[in-house]
Specification:
Chain A: Keywords: Aminopeptidase, Cytoplasm, Hydrolase, Metal-binding, Protease, Zinc, Zinc-finger. The complex is a heterodimer of chains A (410) and B (358). Chain A is of the alpha+beta class and 410 residues long. In chain A, 26% of the residues lie in helices and 20% in strands. The chains are: A alpha+beta (410), B alpha/beta (358).
């Protein structure tokens, strides 16, 4: 992180605000490698005072680097103009970034941004990558009890999300790239009239997350072909009629080893047993106790950095943190009419995670595999309704997972 | 897409020795009370400790905070930028603060402590909630204490202002949540002033929060060992809570107005059922039962079917009850709980706690 006050400038820069000799540099400009003129200030006060006009320099730089025109690309690039994702999607690079990779997997270049038809209703981040309504909403501070009409919308949107995930499931096979899976998800979503919520959410460059092997979550669809023996999680969220529906499943690619089968089976059971206790009066804290117990019994570990969350009009809202680990301080008890996700990530090795240079992909610290399953749930008067449950039309992609049942309480 | 609340440290190899988490102290107080003086004193002092001070100058919008780090011996000052992530996945910027602090700890060879100076932050509770992490996360940083710097000369005025408005002035929150109060500028207060003596001011502070320790100072020149490594939120380091057991002095403060912010201490001799106590404290903290507004809660519990002394700690809605140590032979096993907040109702609390005994 560049500071600047201890360096003596060889050439005197002038403060962008007042013109006096300047020795302090805006750290964002330094990071974005913007010209030093216009990024220098004489004091913190001048910096603060000019911030609201100065910061537009950053967003101009970011948006111009994120959109890549193939025609302008270096023709020596072997990837048809596809580039590696960096800084959460705010910039791209032709070179594989340097990193102490924890396992065998590597990022591959990503394709260009997929367009969304004009008539589709979009969340506010579709435009500039930055959610504005979500972080400032009152729904971050209290858990919404949804009205019947809102619940009906959730049912419809979650059903669409389920159908989109099923469409992705049907194309999983060795040789297909995660980018092609993303294309299927993208097309299926917009055909249904929905918006793929992950797209441009905090600059996320694709329409779903594809997490292979040691990737815990938030893998970015790219040019890598799935290989026989891989496991891959596809995480879909659809925005339709003003609400979001969120689910994910881990799939087998070809013939998968026994350890991976057990991992996937156990992870699914963790979700099942957690859903089984959901009803009014149960503490959100309890979810983590149950999942932790079940994973530990199988000698597997629970990822702690990512958690379940409230969902509805907002992609992520209160209850903001529903941890999957035990002895957590999650606040509140479940009430009828609340909707939230449970999405345990279970690891074959250690629980710790690391993040790739793209700023999104979370991988296991020891490079061993991780699996995940997720549902969006509605608390009913007597129990729970799994809004993203499998449909009769859902493909049977779990020949080896023993108890894949739709969990419903009456 | 999964909701991120990530904060654990990212050591790649298992060969790296486990370092204890670095304590984070939140410094709050009115502008002009002396926070900057305290910060400068800590940064320039020859105390041999490497301390990073995060100056919350720009607020949340800018995404960077300026950090000044005292490099310990030699006292050289290093300026750094701590960049907050560009908005966590759905989290507020405050949460990305924890990640940024952890990255800071990792970048530096050795940091002894972190101070978070909060310019103009009225209520330190949200910050405390973000920093009071679950032990399970094994984070590289841990909330050490909340320190409020109070201006002895102006305290009376700050407490009296807005007395008729429905919300309390900042000073009440800042004192209520404090683990340590630095009563600064004591040299400007003399006992022949019409008004408060130092003792009177200390009494006013203790009226609000009888658990906080008070350190008198001139120009914030305090002994650092009194304000660092308080471990006020560390369940395993419960010695200050255990002081509750020996406390003969009455911890409850007189209720000046029904709704005023004050401290209430209740006792119960009979052992309590842990599940009932959990439900009891949740109804108070989460459901605001009987309209009480609890800011902090600390206590020791004598639990049925257990030889362990349990400690209770709460900040706003976050709470934990943890077994801490075995009761010693001959020790008086008692439940003693202190509430700091507004509209506290003593009889209700005593009766409802009694209902938790079998």
């Amino acid at each position: 992180m560049a500071g600047g006050s201890d360096a003596v400038e060889a050439t005197t820069l002038s403060c962008a605000k007042c013109g006096k000799p300047a020795h302090l540099q805006c750290p964002k400009c330094v990071e974005l490698k913007l010209p030093r003129e216009g990024a220098a200030f004489c004091t913190q006060d001048c910096f603060k005072a000019s911030w609201s006009s100065h910061k537009s320099v950053h967003s101009k730089s970011i948006s111009s680097s994120a959109l890549v025109n193939p025609g302008e690309q270096n023709t020596a690039s072997p990837n048809d103009g596809w580039l590696y994702c960096l800084r959460k999607g705010q910039s791209l690079s032709p070179k594989l970034p340097h990193f102490e990779w924890t396992g065998p997997l590597r990022p591959y270049p990503i394709s260009h941004r997929r367009p969304i038809p004009a008539q589709i209703d979009k969340p506010d981040w579709a435009l500039d990558g930055i959610p504005k309504i979500e972080p400032n909403s009152d729904l971050q501070h209290h858990v919404e009890i949804k009205a019947p009409d809102q619940i009906e919308k959730m049912r419809e949107t979650c059903r669409i999300a389920r159908e989109v995930l099923d469409a992705a499931a049907r194309v999983i096979r060795p040789g297909i790239t995660t980018d092609e899976i993303d294309a299927v998800v993208h097309e299926a979503t917009i055909s249904a009239g929905g918006y793929p919520s992950p797209l441009n959410y905090h600059f996320f460059p694709k329409s779903c997350c594809t997490s292979v092997n040691e990737v815990i979550c938030h893998g970015i669809p790219d040019a890598r072909k799935l290989e026989d023996g891989d496991i891959v999680n596809v995480d879909v969220t659809v925005y339709y009629k003003g609400v979001h529906g969120d689910l994910n499943e881990t799939f087998f690619v070809g013939n998968v080893d026994e350890a991976s089968q057990r991992l996937v089976q156990c992870t699914y059971e963790c979700l099942e047993t957690a859903i089984a206790v959901v009803k009014p009066g149960v503490r959100f804290r309890e979810i983590g106790e149950i999942i932790n117990r079940h994973a530990s019994m199988s000698g597997l570990s629970v990822v702690k950095s990512y958690c379940g969350h409230g969902i509805g009009e907002l992609f992520h809202c209160a209850p903001k943190n529903i941890p999957h680990y035990a002895r957590n301080k999650a606040v509140g008890v479940m009430k009828a009419g609340q909707t939230f996700t449970i999405e345990p990530m279970i690891n074959a090795g250690v629980w710790r995670d690391r993040m790739w240079p793209d700023g999104w992909t979370a991988v296991t610290a020891d490079g061993k595999r991780s699996a995940q399953f997720e549902h969006t749930l509605l608390v009913t008067d007597t129990g729970v309704e799994v809004l993203t449950a499998r449909l009769p039309t859902s493909p049977n992609v779990f020949p080896l997972v023993k108890s894949l049942i739709v969990v419903l309480h009456c | 897409m999964t909701k991120s609340r990530r904060s654990p440290s990212q050591s790649t190899t298992s060969l790296k020795p486990e370092i204890p988490p670095v304590g984070v102290t939140v410094i709050t107080g009115y502008l002009g009370a002396g926070k900057s003086t305290l910060v400068n004193y800590i940064l320039s002092g020859q105390h041999g400790k490497r301390i990073a001070v995060i100056l919350n100058e720009f607020g949340e919008e800018i995404g960077v905070e300026r950090a000044m780090i005292n490099e310990g011996e030699g006292g050289a000052l290093v300026e750094e930028w701590v960049e907050l992530a560009n908005g966590c996945i759905c989290c507020t910027v405050k949460h990305s603060l924890v990640q940024a602090l952890e990255q800071l700890v990792q970048r530096k060879e050795r940091l002894d402590h972190i101070l978070l100076e909060t310019t103009g932050l009225a209520n330190p509770a949200p910050l405390a909630s973000v920093l009071w992490l679950d032990d399970q996360l094994e984070a590289a940083v841990t909330l050490d204490s909340i320190i409020t710097v109070v201006d002895a000369k102006n305290l009376r005025y700050q407490l009296k202002s807005h007395n008729d408005s429905s919300s309390f002035p900042e000073a009440y929150y800042q004192i209520a949540f404090a683990d340590v109060v630095i009563l600064n500028k004591v040299d400007l207060v003399s006992s022949d002033d019409s008004g408060a003596s130092i003792e009177d001011l200390e009494k006013e502070i203790h009226n609000i929060n009888s658990l906080t320790s008070i350190i008198r100072s001139v120009r914030c020149q305090v002994d650092l060992s009194n304000i660092l490594n308080c471990r006020a939120y560390d369940a395993t380091h419960a010695t200050h809570l255990e002081a509750l057991l020996e406390e003969n002095k009455k911890l409850s403060t007189r209720d000046l107005h029904d709704s005023s912010v004050r401290t209430l201490c209740i006792c119960e001799q009979k052992k309590v059922d842990l599940d009932k106590v959990r439900t009891w404290i949740e109804e108070i903290l989460w459901d605001k039962k009987y309209g009480m507004d609890v800011y902090r809660c600390k206590g020791v519990l004598s639990v049925v079917n257990s030889d362990q002394l349990h400690t209770l700690q709460a900040v706003r809605e976050l709470y934990e009850i943890v077994p801490t140590r075995e009761w010693k032979d001959g020790e008086n096993r008692i439940n003693k709980i202190v509430f700091i907040g507004g509209s506290l109702k003593e009889e209700f609390l005593i009766d409802s706690l009694r209902a938790c005994t079998l």
